[in-house]
Amino acid sequence: MSAQPELQVFICRLHRDKIALYEAIHDGMTSPHAANTRRGYDILDIYRLDDLLVMLTRRHAGPPTEPTAESKEQAARWHTALAECFAEPWRPAPRIFSLALAGGTSTPDGAHRS
């Protein structure tokens, strides 16, 4: 049994005048595009507070699914449409606290910290 991929957290900032456009593009995601995107992720959620976006992702366990030509085309159009919305690009958000690791408890892999 392979280990479940780690939950990843990313942040970025939108141009304030492009927030509505960013949300409208996501609201308009087609069913085929959503289905193609789901092929690669167990979790892909985006949250917004003002112009700050937080994205949580977890890829499927096991080998990655090879994207189809159609899904590659959809992704390219999607990224092109979204590009003008970003004031700062997506980047990994560093973890500053983990309750699982706090107070000498077990680490996520089950080892005990002293």
Q: First CA to last CA: what distance?
A: 29 Å
Please tell me how large the radius of gyration is. 17 Å
Low-confidence stretches: none
User: Order of helices and strands, N to C?
Assistant: EHHEEHE
Strand order of the largest sheet: 2-3-1-4
As a percent range, the share of strand residues is: 25-35%
Q: Total number of β-strand segments?
A: 4
What structural category characterises the helix and strand content? alpha+beta
Largest sheet: 4 strands, antiparallel
- Separate helix tally: 3
Into which percent range does the helicity of residues fall? 25-40%
Taken from the alpha-carbon principal axes, the silhouette is flat
Mean pLDDT: 87
Question: Which helices and strands, and how do they pair?
Answer:
Elements lengths: L7 E7 L4 H9 L3 H8 L2 E9 L2 E8 L9 H15 L2 E7 L22
Antiparallel strand pairs: 1-3, 1-4, 2-3
Tell me what you see in this structure:
With 114 residues, this protein is α+β, with helices and mostly antiparallel strands. A four-stranded antiparallel beta sheet has the order 2-3-1-4, with no helix packed on it. Strand 2 and strand 3 form a beta hairpin. It is flat.
Question: How would you summarize this macromolecular structure in one to three sentences?
Answer:
The chain is of the alpha+beta class.
Notable features of this structure?
114 residues, 27% strand, 28% helix, alpha+beta
